[in-house]
């Protein structure tokens, strides 16, 4: 029986260094992927799930949204994702009704919302708005650096009409809801 001679890199020592090299390459790939994900979420946006029915018919519970926050400045009519952990433990999805310096008047008898004396055309709302049962705001001038937000499903939305939430500091806004990503049958731009 002749002695066995392994070629360099094919014996046990070679297998070990080959596996170490593969592990090192895998670790490098993982770190690069992690950095890429962090950069995407930091600069381009994030994915957020809609919870509840306050934005029906525009959005539904379970919809996954692409939310862009980079350089975003809120504008009236935008759908935004915000956090107010003193109010609720999860991110809220609402529509901006007014920005700093604008005055909001809500006429519960007529079921209308006016900004600076002009009644808003709101084809996106879900039915006629009724007066909430308690602690509601019917007129307010929004302070600079804040927004007044409401859900499209006005009768099922805890929003700026309630003193507990009221106006929202712009710093609480995570970003602008750009599009529905999931479920696939609802993919589209958020309007």
From TrEMBL:
Gene3D superfamilies per the UniProt record, alphabetical: Umud Fragment, subunit A (2.10.109.10)
Its EC number(s): 3.4.21.89
Reaction catalysed by this enzyme: Cleavage of hydrophobic, N-terminal signal or leader sequences from secreted and periplasmic proteins
Segments traversing the membrane: 26-45
One Gene Ontology cellular component annotation held by this UniProt entry: plasma membrane
InterPro entries from the UniProt entry: LexA/Signal_pep-like_sf, Pept_S26A_signal_pept_1, Pept_S26A_signal_pept_1_CS, Pept_S26A_signal_pept_1_Lys-AS, Pept_S26A_signal_pept_1_Ser-AS, Peptidase_S26
GO biological process, one term: signal peptide processing
Peptidase S26 domain sequence ranges: 25-181
Bilayer topology annotation: Single-pass type II membrane protein
Catalytic residues identified in the record: 54, 94
One MF term in the entry's GO annotations: signal peptidase activity
Protein's cellular compartments: Cell membrane; Membrane
Any one Pfam family match given in the protein's UniProt record, by short name: Peptidase_S26
UniProt KW keywords: Hydrolase, Membrane, Protease, Transmembrane, Transmembrane helix
PANTHER family attached to this UniProt entry: CHLOROPLAST PROCESSING PEPTIDASE (PTHR43390:SF1), SIGNAL PEPTIDASE I (PTHR43390)
NCBIfam families associated with the record: sigpep_I_bact (TIGR02227)
Family of this protein: Belongs to the peptidase S26 family.
Identification of the protein by name: Signal peptidase I
């Amino acid at each position: 029986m002749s002695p066995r001679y392994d070629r360099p890199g094919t014996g046990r020592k070679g297998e070990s260094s080959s596996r170490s090299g593969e592990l090192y390459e895998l670790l490098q790939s993982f770190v690069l992927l992690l950095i890429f994900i962090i950069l995407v979420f930091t600069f381009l946006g994030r994915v957020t799930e809609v919870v509840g029915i306050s934005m029906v018919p525009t959005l539904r519970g379970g919809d996954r949204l692409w939310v862009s926050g980079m350089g975003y400045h809120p504008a009236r009519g935008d759908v935004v994702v915000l956090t107010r952990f003193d109010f609720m433990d999860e991110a809220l999805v609402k529509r901006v009704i007014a920005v700093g310096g604008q005055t909001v008047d809500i006429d519960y008898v007529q079921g209308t919302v006016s900004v600076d004396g002009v009644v808003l055309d709101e084809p996106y709302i879900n039915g006629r708005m009724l007066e909430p049962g308690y602690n509601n705001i019917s007129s307010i001038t929004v302070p600079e650096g804040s927004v007044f937000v409401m859900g499209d499903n006005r009768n099922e939305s805890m929003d700026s009409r309630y003193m507990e939430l009221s106006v929202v500091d712009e710093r609480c806004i995570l970003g602008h809801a750009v599009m529905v990503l999931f479920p696939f049958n609802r993919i589209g731009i958020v309007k």
